[in-house]
């Protein structure tokens, strides 16, 4: 039967779970700082190393290929061994790979370290979503997801402010080294702070009871391949396939877009990018809050999640006009609105696996869906690079960016009209 809402009124039970959410937020921020450094430096590196647009697209694709491969085993890794060591392993791999970009001197070299970065970064979302499913009751999960997801926008704000300063004063190599090193700081806090929810010595009995107040879930272990037979898995995966490439497009191509269309150089790109990702950050929290708010008001999980995603899908459609305007700040506003909507959409989409699957399968389902999403991003990055080289126009890319969410929501709804539990 459909997962229904729980009581809207709860007593004060403690807040330790929000400390864990804060760690997820900072990990996600670091994750997006590390992956954005190349995009910010792309105009300079393309000139210095004589890359074509298609070569840059293939370098980005190397990350997406590894991201897709990484999700296949990272999600299973989190379900099998737990998030304390699994998350730490993921962050360790991507931090080392991020720093080693500094030694690359060719397109092939950058592609190799992008590949390693993608393998490590693939662990972030399976781990974070699994942690949320274990540490938060259903009615708080979309809010917690929206909060940690907002770390991606914070990372995207910090990077364009910090990276140009580092690159201009110390060289582009130090931009990779210093941002990559931030992951090691996070590791110290994670290893010292995190424990499984039932074993945490600082969690009160009342807060543990609140976290575990949802109806009991199935405890039978589900084989990884068996998850592929559920339409709920494919609903999540296909929605990721259509929406993930859009965020990747913004993430990797926005500095190039503003450079080619509006003449922004490395020292001037920070403020427009910051404004866009502040709006994106607000979207993460607004989308997560709004869905949880509707549940507290008595809406079912199905209606609250899908209504929020529908609003986001409609809000993103005007972004096509960003490719047509010659006014920089109009373009910034339209793209910022689109990313606000994308993050509101994603905060709810990432919550769906924990709505439909037991905790012990959530990491694997997120991994499967994210693999499919990364495959979409891989083809999207390559296609974007070749389209730009052949047409010298961003218009076709923004048309796709404005319409993909409505198509994704239609497919998701057709496969899962109601968010039923996949495993009885």
UniProtKB/TrEMBL annotation:
The keyword Ligase does not apply. It is a multi-pass membrane protein. It is found in: Membrane. One of its GO terms (cellular component) is membrane. Keywords: Membrane, Transmembrane, Transmembrane helix. Pfam families: MFS_1. InterPro entries: MFS, MFS_dom, MFS_Na/Anion_cotransporter, MFS_trans_sf. The chain crosses the membrane at residues 15-33, 54-74, 86-104, 143-168, 174-194, 234-253, 273-295, 307-323, 329-350, 362-388, 394-415. One of its GO terms (molecular function) is hexuronate transmembrane transporter activity. Residues 20-420 form the Major facilitator superfamily (MFS) profile domain. PROSITE patterns: MFS. This is MFS transporter. It comes from Chryseolinea soli.
């Amino acid at each position: 039967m459909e997962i229904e809402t729980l009581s809207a009124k709860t007593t004060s039970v403690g807040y330790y779970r929000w400390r864990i959410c804060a760690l997820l937020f900072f990990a996600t921020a670091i994750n997006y700082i590390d992956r954005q450094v190349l995009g910010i430096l792309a105009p300079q590196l393309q000139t210095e190393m004589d890359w074509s647009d298609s070569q840059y697209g293939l370098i980005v694709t190397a990350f997406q290929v590894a991201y897709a491969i990484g999700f296949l085993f990272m999600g299973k890794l989190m379900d099998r061994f737990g998030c304390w060591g699994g998350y730490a392993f993921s962050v360790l791999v991507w931090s080392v790979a991020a720093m080693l970009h500094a030694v690359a001197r060719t397109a092939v070299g950058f592609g190799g370290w992008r590949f390693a970065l993608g393998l490590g970064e693939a662990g972030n979302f399976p781990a974070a979503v699994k942690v949320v499913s274990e540490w938060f009751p259903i009615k708080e999960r979309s809010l917690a997801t929206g909060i940690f997801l907002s770390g991606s926008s914070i990372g995207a704000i910090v990077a364009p402010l910090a990276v140009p300063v580092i690159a201009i004063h110390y060289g582009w190599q130090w931009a990779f080294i210093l941002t990559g090193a931030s992951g090691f700081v996070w590791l110290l806090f994670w290893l010292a702070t995190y424990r499984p929810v039932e074993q945490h010595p600082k969690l009160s009995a009342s807060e543990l009871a609140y976290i575990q107040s949802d109806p009991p879930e199935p405890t039978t272990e589900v084989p990884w391949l068996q998850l592929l037979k559920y339409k709920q898995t494919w609903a999540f995966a296909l929605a990721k396939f259509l929406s993930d490439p859009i965020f990747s497009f913004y993430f990797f191509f926005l500095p190039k877009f503003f450079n080619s269309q509006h003449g922004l150089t490395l020292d001037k790109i920070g403020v427009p990018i910051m404004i866009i990702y502040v709006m994106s950050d607000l979207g993460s929290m607004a989308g997560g809050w709004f869905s949880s708010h509707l549940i507290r008001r008595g809406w079912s999980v199905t209606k609250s999640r899908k209504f929020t995603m529908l609003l986001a899908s409609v809000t993103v459609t005007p972004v096509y006009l960003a490719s047509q305007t010659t006014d920089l700040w109009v373009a910034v506003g339209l793209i910022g609105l689109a990313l606000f909507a994308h993050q509101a959409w994603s905060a709810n989409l990432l919550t769906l696996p924990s709505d439909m699957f037991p905790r012990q399968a959530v990491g694997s389902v997120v991994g499967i869906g994210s693999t499919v999403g990364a495959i979409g991003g891989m083809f999207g990055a390559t296609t974007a690079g070749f389209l730009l080289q052949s047409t010298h126009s961003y218009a076709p890319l923004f048309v796709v960016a404005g319409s993909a969410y409505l198509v994704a929501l239609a497919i998701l709804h057709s496969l899962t009209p109601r968010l039923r539990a996949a495993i009885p």
